[in-house]
Amino acid sequence: MTIFLQSLISGILIGGVYALIGIGLTIIFGVMRVINFAHGDLLMLGMYATYFLFTLLGVDPFVSIVFTIPLMFLYGGVLQKVFINRILNSLPQNQILLTIGLGLIMSNAVMLAFTSDYKILTTSYSSGSVDILGISVSQPLAISFAITAAITALLYWFLLKTDTGQAIRATAQDREAAQLMGINVNRMSIIAFGLGASLAGTAGALISPTYYIFPQVGSTFTLKAFVITVLGGMGSIVGATLGGILIGIAESIGGVYLGSGWKEVIVFVLFLLVLLFKPSGLMGKSNA
């Protein structure tokens, strides 16, 4: 029972970071109806930024989000303005090809600049753990989850209570109606993509103390983000949060009881079951 509870808690903790990745992709899709296949590569950039802030300047990985969030927001805004904005009304396959191409440019540019060698960010607490009622909990995962919860709560407040947040939600619900009501939908698109990029970069910073850092790491998380988004319901932030935590739990428990090689299989079996019995996702609407 202790092993089960420990793996459950670990799954919830890592699932919180997964949720942050899924929320970023969901915001981008909700506002622009573009699936960003470069999302994982934005996370990879966040990991590298965190690594170099730590090794060159001594900035703690969890403190580095203070720098990572605004930098990735600006970078995402530039990507949207220069590239994504040009294909908003194009065929879906053109949108997919563009975002895949952007991802390849990012990963290969990083590989040329820093080689494809794996990098490890080691801190004093990387392998640390805390004991809660006899259950050992990873210290970096616990800190990551706490930061993720705070960022998610702040994001919900921003979307629900601020004028800009409500404008983003209105644009996501009906882009044309929002424009007719005087909302600058192009500006909302830039902000949405910037938010998505900053959330991906933040997730990269939070997992960097417990994950290998290399240029192709983004492809793994792009696929994971896509599964989380579809699992929770395309465009649903609550669904992305729930989907991320479910994926984290499935990976953790599956890895303990079936072996690490099976945890990805369990995730995709869960994904297929949801598509079979509720194609719109856990929190999605059938008429969406």
TrEMBL record:
Transmembrane spans: 12-35, 42-59, 96-115, 135-159, 190-214, 226-249, 256-277
Location relative to the cell: Cell membrane
A Gene Ontology molecular function term of the record: transmembrane transporter activity
Primary localisation category: membrane
Biological processes per GO annotation: amino acid transport
UniProt keyword list: Amino-acid transport, Cell membrane, Membrane, Transmembrane, Transmembrane helix, Transport
This protein's GO CC annotations: plasma membrane
InterPro entries according to UniProt: ABC_transp_permease, BCAA_transport_permease
Protein family according to the UniProt entry: Belongs to the binding-protein-dependent transport system permease family. LivHM subfamily.
Protein known as: Amino acid/amide ABC transporter membrane protein 1 (HAAT family)
